[in-house]
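Trying the structure run again after the queue cleared.
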Amino acid sequence: MSELRSALDALAVEDVRSLGPRQQLDRITELLEARNRLDAQLARSVRAAELQQAPEDDGLKSMRSWLRGHGRLSPGAAGQLVRNGRALEHLPALASAFADGAVTAEQVAVIAPVATEDRRRAARAQGVDLAEVDRTLAALAAERPLQQLTRVVHHYLARLDPDGPEPDPTEERSLILATFSDGTVVLRGRLDATGGEKLAAALEAITQADRPRGDRRTRGQQLADALVQLADNALAAGNLPFLRTVKPTVVVTIPAADLADPAPGPAAAATGFGGLVSAATARALACDGSITPVVLDEHGVPLNLGRTKRVVPPHLRRAVELRDQACVFAGCAAPTHWCDVHHLQHWILGGETSLENSALLCERHHTKIHHGFRVQRDPGGRWRTFRPDHSEIVIGARLLTTR
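Done. Tokens:
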């Protein structure tokens, strides 16, 4: 282990920026192979420790719990590492390829279900040569893309028990939401084929319906926006189960002074699930939300809880929807049920909650408006959009040239 640390120390001081493109890629290839070999040793050690019940030495029940606490792994990652270690015991060809660096931990995770006790039993009952399956899958993993390997493993498992009960799809699903200190949320998860198809269909419907002119978002950004819109639609519909008699909603807590201050105010507000957002984001949410005033003493203990009031009453929202028909930001046509009612002059700064002071904006463009962009309705009823530098965004304008 000391030699390994020394080798890593030597790698850390190399000037990688001075390498040429081919050298960079060759170095990455070697590092990937080395990582695979380290992952193989990690899985082997985890299995050995599990067999010895080593976590008991630290007062813990299982390797999974030890990896979560001492290794700071997510529950999903800890569980998969344990399953990989167990599977490799029964798949020597795969274990060898893994130890040589030819196979990744992710590929081992795909193959691991082949080696569970019930599937090994089923293979023996049908005369399947598990050693041959092991060699075939190890070779496939070393040469073919992960997607092709996944299809082959799925086909093998389906043929192994063609008449057995359909697997419970919920057992194949997992989703972890990891929240960082700045409120950013990272998603890690897995869905079964049917569940994944349902989500893909819903996201694709939203993505294809929301394609404004000049959209430069990547495919990943479009899908992420669609997932947020899917959650927004579900919350707005009001059909979700109640949480301890309370209708599920996005909760943001912010001091009144920060809400009234026009400055961006980074990390000024706290969300209900522990994230931090800026005062500008809180003001955007407050445009078309419910407000509950709370008076606190010097120790932060609530002294008085005011009545919750909906900022935009239903009849006003309906009037804004009838007038605007869709998001009013130039080039966007997001439907009304995707939109918030934005106060042109924020109510915290004295703006009225009225039809004249309201505009319909989708989430993305509502955020833009609270970060420097501006929409304005001219006397003729036409909405105009301006950039932070006050230049107007004009859609379909013809360029005039002189000869």
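DSSP finds 15 helices and 14 strands in the chain. Worth checking whether this holds up in the mutant runs.
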